[in-house]
Each structure stands twice: as C-alpha cells, then as structure tokens.
Write a structure and sequence with these properties.
globular; single chain; five-stranded antiparallel β-sheet; 249 residues; alpha+beta; Alpha-Beta Plaits
Amino acid sequence: MTTDPFRAASVSAIVEVTGPRPSLDYYLVLAQHGDRDPTGDHPEGIVVEEFTHHHDHSTTGLDSASWTPASGWWSSASLSRGLRTDPDALARVVPTWRREAESVYRTLGGGRLPDETTLRTYFLDHQPIATAQPLRLGPMQPPDGFHERRVYRVLFARDLLAEQVADLRAAWQTPVDGAGASVASGRLDRGGDRFTWELRRVGHTLAWCLDVTVLLRTAAAGAVGPILSDLTNVLRQHGLIPVTTERFA
C-alpha cells in the first residue's frame, strides 16, 4: 500500500488507461502523528469524490463522501475544500485506486465497499465551482488542417518531488531542451486529432497546473474528456490532488 503521498508507482508513456475507465476518485486519510501510531502513516478513513463538468469538460462542481469506522459515511463540501487548501489535511491524504480503497475499507471493519452507484447516494453536500466564459489563450485560429483549437488548464494541489518530475518527463518523452516554465510535456495523436500538454508550477504555494492544447481535425470531440481524465489520473497517481479544470479557448 502506498502511504507516502509523494511516492507513487511509475506511469506508462501511453496516456490511455486499459480496462474500465475509473469513475470516482478515491483517497486514503492517514492517521495524525501520535494517533495510535507514532509514524502516523496508517489509513483511518476513506474519501470518495467526483467532479461534475460542463459539456465542454470544464469543471462545475465537486461531490464527495467520507467514511471512518466510528462515523460511517457522511458528506462535507468543507472537507473537500480543506483537502486542497489546508497543509495539515494535504499531508494526510493519499490518492489511491478503488481496489486499494476496497482493501482498506475491509481491513477497517467496513466489510465490502459499496458499488459506485451506491456511493453516489452518499453525495449530499455539493460544492459548486465557479466558472466563466472561456478566456482566449493563444491564437484564435487553429493551424491549417484543424477546425478547432481548445486549451484546458487542470489545477492541482500539493507538490512533486524531483524524481517524480523526472519520471513524468521520461514517461511523456519530454524533449531535453524543452523551453519555458514547463517542467514536463507530452504529445498524443488520436484519430487525426492532436493533444499536447505541459506541466508547470503555479503561484507561490504548493500547486501545479497541466495545460492541455487540443487540436481537432475530426468532427467528433469524444476523445477530449477521456484524455483529460487519463492525464489527471496520471498526476493523481503521483500524489497530486486535482482542484478544477478550466477552459481557456
């Protein structure tokens, strides 16, 4: 079990997720130092979340539910906000996958983790996330051969270690001489459409953003949502916590 929030498994150079695409986001909540365990690194609860989106895949809100053996399931928008803004909470939350959440839930006495349809019934305190009309970032017209250009920014809380940045650079085959503030970047062509992305630090706090440029050659835009989801999950696997997805073009 991964209990170090900054040390996650390596990612594949291919963005696409094999098998069923994950729907909900799962987190383990670690005990505080001194709570039964002086190292404070054993799970004491679970958080389950799901972002809501506009048709263009920008974020509109966040639903969440939390569970501990003593309290059972409850829903709290303030808890989800705290996971992204409170340094103490950030240090205790580890992104994970459903299979690991199932194991922890069973170990803590919860039995069998409810299916995702049931988990959604515990979402009782929706957290709206303000949105605005897309800002224009970059050229208005797409390059020749493409009919639409979109730019998305996915914001993340918490920090990355240098070794994790190096892992991402290797997985995404980032050019050694990459310019600008980007620390890792990648590119994917899918059915004639082109996706490029750049990871960079933002602000003066522990925060990162992933800027994704989408060039659409085909009439359908069905790959946009899955690619954004896959990229977000890659960074969750490295310990970052997604905050919102904005559209700039």
